Amino acid sequence: MASTYLTRTSTTVTNDKKFTVSAWVKGSDLGGSVQAGVCGHRSTTNNGNNSFQFGVFNGGYYAAFVSNSGNDVHINKVTNRLLRDTNAWYHLVIAVDSTLGTASDRVKMYINGELQTSFSTDVNPPQDRTFLNNSCNIDVGRLTYTNGNFKYWDGIISHFHFVDGTAYPASTFGSTDSTTGEWKINTSPTVTYGNNGFFILKDTNSGTDQSSNTNNLSVAGGTLTPTEDCPSNVFATANPLNKTSNILLANGNCSVGTSNTGTDDYISGTIAFGNGKYYWENKLTSPGDPAIGIVPAQYNNNEIGNQRVMYHENGNIYTDGLGISAINTGVTYASGDIISVAFDTENGIIKWYKNNTLVNNSTITNSQLEFSNKLWVPIFYCANGNGTATIQANFGNGYFGTTAVSSAGTNASNNGIFEYDVPSGYTALSTKGLNL
Description:
mainly beta, Jelly Rolls, eight-stranded antiparallel sheet, 2 helices
């Protein structure tokens, strides 16, 4: 939930001039003027006094420290590098040491291991400024802006480290893969955490401290939703960068809705796939007139309706842009139905299931859809403006919205958690699935 966070109250500070935060994050909405809080340190009265803020602002990586109820700004830095990819995991690190003589060295911010040197806003602290007071609250998943104005993280956080008393570089928590060149997690870094330090969200979906400190955090504001999505295996979601304006998104961009009743609305998925066999599930919580299928990845939302789309819509299978007659299946949708998609791009076969019962096998030749030359993405299509529609997609995370699947089916690929048995030879639409 967007208002859920983890929190604990600090004790005696090890060194109030030095600290480090390291977190892997994936956001649902990072563009525009959105401010999203990965973590914050605030006074117990929530008035913004002695408040540390760490997150995303105007698309950039953001960090600030203010005192005197927000009137005095001692740190205020926003990177020119933008974090707008909602399908990507970013590794964010801030290392603060106000004892250093050079002002620009006192706050070091890293994105995926790279030290950031270009800032749209760049205020560094005075030498020997103190930051982390005793009996203040440390929050993960939100920050306190001013006067109790909270900004929450709408997305996922993994491998979160808070270090009291030492400023560590990003290379302590991550390293470059020698084969792929990608920045990856150091799962068990060598860190001295200090009195208030902790390491959470490594292998458990809780605030249990996995350092030696046992500085556990409590859940507040709702409940935590586990997910299979992680920095080493990124699952598809709906793509907020390729949608029509009336599409509404929630739950990490896995819930798709529209309040529009006048025109068609579309949104595609985030991961494109070529040769392979892929499976995903979609639960209807407000049927309206939704359609679920595939579209070539090259098309944007304004082109989807007139291109080579193939989808199942409440009784009919359509192949827009192909000149092929609709197939009437006689299957209609109701609230609570789970519509599964199994797409075999190698043989040109797409199957839809309603509540695990096969709707229809639809075989389209490669010459018609050019399977061998195209990349595909999932498509959610609220057709003809016929009422509102809400679809909760499960690409393998094991959840419809915030509700876990009722009884997980078997999955021979061991990739993702689904309500029903995954057909033999199929896998989840994730980075690991692409490389099976």
